[in-house]
């Protein structure tokens, strides 16, 4: 029995440390390890899901969230788009957790998921994220970002649903901002927006207004940094010029970065510079 008792103590200690490791804690330092949570569902549709990237040593007081919304003209793309930006995020937003949102896409053949399905999904996703911050041991402070259609959805949520999520700053890359104006750009945008919004600006003007971020800008709007190329042939730079004028009129903190000679999508070095500028801008508003 004298030899057996030390074995029991050794077994108990081993089980204790194994339990701590299984719960995601370093048994020696008490620090949380990095965790990737893929395809975390916030809704019943398979595309209503998140990829969540939680850093090591995170805490509710020191780890804000960078939430990214993918582009694709509201008909294409998925949340894996963030993968191409993750290294930049880790470089320029190193103390953050990252979340990429998937959402329902408009289906051209069937007409399913017309707007505002995408807006509603972003709203639901952010409500879900807010409900999980304690479980993930991260801050509730949010930087909301997106590119193209994702930039539109980020701005629309930030201005229209500003009370949902503790959003401190907005980042948009070549975003649509005023859809009735965008409708006039070319035949392709006319056909796409007519289907997506259920008519033209003349037949359903409320749909265009309700879906345009600039309709909801006011003096209390969230600080915004946005980037647009002068040679963009998909979303004209005039969309960001309209946004700048509205933000200036409302006296909202903002920064408009014009990218000379580039189009709908930037060169790798330009993306790196944009992330660096966006991180510096957002740092002014994170506690």
UniProtKB/TrEMBL annotation:
<dbReference type="Pfam" id="PF20434">
    <property type="entry name" value="BD-FAE"/>
</dbReference>
<dbReference type="GO" id="GO:0016787">
    <property type="term" value="F:hydrolase activity"/>
</dbReference>
<keyword id="KW-0378">Hydrolase</keyword>
<feature type="domain" description="BD-FAE-like">
    <location>
        <begin position="50"/>
        <end position="247"/>
    </location>
</feature>
<dbReference type="InterPro" id="IPR029058">
    <property type="entry name" value="AB_hydrolase_fold"/>
</dbReference>
<protein>
    <submittedName>
        <fullName>Alpha/beta hydrolase</fullName>
    </submittedName>
</protein>
<dbReference type="InterPro" id="IPR049492">
    <property type="entry name" value="BD-FAE-like_dom"/>
</dbReference>
<dbReference type="InterPro" id="IPR050300">
    <property type="entry name" value="GDXG_lipolytic_enzyme"/>
</dbReference>
């Amino acid at each position: 029995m004298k030899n057996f008792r030390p074995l029991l103590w050794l077994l108990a200690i081993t089980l204790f440390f194994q339990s701590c490791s299984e719960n995601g804690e370093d048994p020696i330092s008490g620090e949380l390890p990095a965790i990737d949570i893929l395809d975390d569902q916030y809704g019943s549709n398979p595309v209503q899901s998140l990829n969540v990237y939680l850093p090591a040593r995170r805490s509710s007081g020191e780890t804000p969230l960078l939430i990214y919304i993918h582009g694709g003209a509201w008909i294409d793309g998925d949340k894996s788009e963030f993968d191409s930006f993750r290294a930049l995020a880790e470089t320029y937003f190193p103390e953050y957790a990252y979340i990429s949102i998937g959402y329902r896409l408009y289906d051209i053949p069937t007409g399913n998921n017309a707007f505002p399905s995408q807006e509603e999904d972003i709203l639901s996703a952010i409500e879900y994220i807010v409900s999980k911050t304690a479980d993930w041991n991260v801050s509730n402070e949010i930087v909301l970002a997106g590119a193209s259609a994702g930039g539109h959805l980020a701005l629309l949520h930030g201005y229209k649903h500003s009370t949902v999520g503790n959003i401190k700053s907005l980042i948009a890359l070549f975003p649509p901002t005023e859809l009735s104006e965008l409708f006039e750009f070319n035949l392709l945008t006319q056909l796409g927006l007519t289907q997506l919004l259920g008519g033209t600006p003349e037949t359903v003007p409320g749909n265009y207004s309700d879906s345009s971020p600039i309709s909801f800008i006011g003096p209390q709007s969230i600080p915004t940094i946005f980037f647009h190329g002068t040679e963009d042939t998909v979303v004209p730079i005039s969309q960001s010029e309209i946004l700048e004028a509205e933000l200036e009129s409302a006296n909202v903190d903002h920064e408009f970065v014009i990218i000379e000679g580039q189009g709908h999508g930037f060169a790798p070095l330009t993306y790196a510079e944009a992330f660096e500028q966006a991180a510096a801008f957002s740092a002014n508003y994170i506690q």
